Amino acid sequence: MRKIATASFKTTLIASVSAACLIAAPASAQDAAEEDNPGDAGEIVVTATKQGAQSLIDVPQSISAVGGEDLQRAGAQGIGDIAAKVPGLSAFGAGSNQTKIKLRGVSSASESEPQETVAIYLDDVPITGSGGTNNENGASPDLGLFDLNRIEVLKGPQGTLYGSGSLGGTVRYILNTPDLNDFEGRAQARVSTTKRGSESYGLDAVLNIPIVQDKMALRLAGSFAHNGGWIDNTAPVVGLGLTPTGTGRKDANSDDNWMVRATLEIRPVEELTMRARYMHRQFDVKGESSVDTARGDYTQPWKIEPFNKDNIDLYDLYLEYDAGSVVISSSTSYFDRDTLDLQDTNRFSQLLFTANSPSSTLINSNRQKDFTEELRVSFDTGSMIKGVVGLYYQKQTKDFTQDAPSPGLNDFCAANAGCFGSPVPIADLNPVFPTVNRYVVGSFPNVFQSVVPQDLKQFAVFGELTFSLTEQLDVIVGGRYFDLKGNFDYRSRGTFSSPGADARSGSYQEDGFNPKGTISYKPNDDTTLYATASKGFRAGGFNQPIPSTPQCIAELNSLGITNSAVSFDSDSLWNYEVGGKAKIADGKVYVAGSAYYLNWSDVQVRRQLGCGFTFFSNAASARSIGFEGSISAKPADGLSTDLSVSYVDAQLQETLPQIGAKGDSLPGVPNWTIGFAVDYERPISERLDWFGRVDMSYVSKFRSSISPTDPSRRDGGDYLITNVRLGLAGEGDQSWTLALYANNLFDTRAVVGTQSNLFGDYQFINRPREIGLQANIKF
User: Residue 434 has what pLDDT?
Assistant: First the structure.
């Protein structure tokens, strides 16, 4: 079926869905009999303020929360599956484990940034890396959604409580904790097939084991998934150090991932909780979910197939002492992430030589290790003052390496009277890794190789205080003082490493203060209104030197510089926001909305040079204006509906050569995102129900670069995706569900990301229609 693309159809559909949700919910609520009261809509507890559990409606802040049960009912496998359902959130997709999250239009690049603008947390543990050079930080890892209690999305800068990286907001994955009393377990299995692709399957299981009643319990969880591909490789695969192996592979963009997690909770006395956790998550991605922009089909000519490997080990110890009016907590964690990825760079080789140039590739490896400690005290004495204060410390090390091997390059050069203006053979350099994926790697021409060790230390003091001036009026003030210190040491060799640009060392130091102020008014228990001003920041980092080749020198001179600066500073953002949330119709309808203005200063801008190198500078200012709203309703027994709408206008505020002009839109951000879901369940018999669910999400057009005249600018977005599920649910000693589902029901071909540079001109596309069966059992 062709893509649903007409503006009139989309406008009509969206208007119809919105009207149905807004009008039908209150009317149905009034018609519902008292004995059929379906319960409160949107009733969910969050811990985002770090002051204990609070009902979502009582938090004077723009927070979206998606519960674990809702994630399961929707069949969501990653955060990209719920992006359109969370107002203000957009997901720039580049395939499995490669989703870049943006909030409220805070985006300076659709490709790599020195650090993402949204911080990712697993409970209290930060996952995203701080700072860095201009190449090593990829997307935030996919942490999976199985055995989650909820996902909390905090929108707007969270510089007070969450620090560096929370420029556009923070996403928190909140896990289920061990139950000290009941033995329980749950398992789910799924199998599916993709149109024009291959089969997928997965298995997840969790077991909760009380060891000492009321004192100790162990929770074990594990997952495995194989996601079949749907993009065919049509080129003869060369490999590294190997001869051609044929005509490529069918369904080449597959991945395998697995996770194990163990959580031990001990409560020796009622006031003290000790929780220790270990998690290992591993991704093995083959190929990419991309196609050549000029093709418009589901094929890609990779001479050397890309891949990505990502291994994560996480150790976390959480301690909490609850003395009633005062709670002392400590989170100590060690995070170890090891990534290795390969990108086919044959387009770059063709630009350097001819269309018949030898195959080439770029191999990136990054080993990141983080130790973090956060100690905080929250208090609520029942008087007019409550709050939280804390200390934060982080020590991070990174070891980043790059290789650019080109098998067969010297044979090509010999046959073409030399390369790079010289008949001298390119040096054979052993890559950093002796084996890469399934390819055998020996010594061969390696045009570039670099090693970049780094370290970063961060210290912060933070706090938020709430002053209750009346029973209805609160004033919240907060602040965070931070101090950052970092070092790096860069070394390179090879054809593209020239004297004067083959070594660079440097240090980086910065401190600052991020304030926050909020006025909250509660006219009644079911309504909260607020106004907020808050500041956030993103740490700076280091630039690798630019080789002194004639082309690089000419491009740098056109920018008025001789080389990139050793370091770039942090950027910061002020958020001014008003919003509110309320429960109406006897608690059956929950509505929330906000409007905001973001002022972004010293934006870290990515400068791409035609000679193949990039650097970052603080060279821009930007602003973002938008509004977002959501409504959840339970109008009748077994029926629930959710609607979310977000609009954002994010623009550059000054003209920058080779970047864009004042008023140009920021990259990777759609103006509109709209999500709608309806879920209905009815009994068949005393122990058997049937249920159905429809999820629809619309993402408007977004662009890959800022300037409209940029020849590499590409459009993505402008698509509507529909997922449906139909199944049976059984109750008893063992509850179970069996669901038939169709994701992307109308087989819409959506461009969810783009890349156009020296290494390729690609569109990252979504999975075609997927039909599957999922079974869950709980005991």
Answer: 39
Q: Are 90 and 102 in contact (CB under 8 A)?
A: yes
Burial-class residue 57 by CB neighbours within 10 Å (0-12, 13-18, 19+). Answer: buried
Q: Is 301 exposed, middle or buried (0-12, 13-18, 19+ CB in 10 A)?
A: middle
pLDDT for position 421 = 59
Residues contacting residue 554 through CB under 8 Å, at least 6 positions apart = none
Count CA within 13 A, CB hemisphere, residue 671.
8
The DSSP result for 105-172, as a single string, is T--S-SS--SS-SEEEEETTEE-SPP---SSS--PPP----TTEEEEEEEES--TTTT-TT-SSEEEE
Residues ≥6 apart with Cβ < 8 Å to 334: 314, 315, 316, 369, 370, 371
φ, ψ at 397 (rounded to 5°): -130, 145
CB 132 within 8 A of CB 397: no
Q: Which two tokens stand for residue 770?
A: 């997927």
Question: What is the tens place of the pLDDT at every residue in 187-205?
Answer: 999 999 999 999 999 999 9
Confidence (pLDDT) at 464: 96
CB neighbourhood size of 470 (10 A)? 9
C-alpha to C-alpha distances, 600 to 4, 156, 159, 516, nearest whole angstrom: 35, 12, 14, 16
Rounded Cα distance, 773 and 134, in Å: 43
pLDDT of res. 402: 83
Picking from 747, 741, 749, the residue whose alpha carbon sits closest to that of residue 766 is 749
Residue 63, pLDDT score? 93
Report how far residue 235's alpha carbon sits from residue 256's, in angstroms, rounded to the nearest whole number.
Answer: 23
CA distance 644 to 675: 5
Q: How, if at all, do strands 216-227 and 272-286 pair?
A: unpaired
At residue 683, the 3 state secondary structure works out as strand
Site of tokens 């920021």? 666
Answer yes or no: pTM beyond 0.85: yes
Please give the Cα distance from 466 to 60 (Å, whole number): 11
Q: Say which DSSP state 617 is in.
A: E
CA distance 131 to 137: 9
Low-confidence stretches of the chain (pLDDT < 50) are: 1-39, 241-244, 431-441
Residue 117: what pLDDT?
A: 87
pLDDT score of 129: 64
Would you call 420 exposed, middle or buried from its count of C-beta atoms within 10 A (0-12, 13-18, 19+)?
Answer: middle
Q: Is domain 7-778 annotated with CATH 3.60.15.10? A: no
- CB–CB of 166/536 below 8 Å? yes
pLDDT of residue 607: 80
DSSP 79: G
- Give me the residue spans of the domains in the chain: 7-778
Spatial distance between the Cα atoms of 547 and 609, rounded to a whole number of angstroms? 11
Distance CA 512, CA 538 (A): 11
CA angle 706, 708, 710 (to 5 degrees): 80
Label the pairing between strands 169-175 and 118-122: parallel
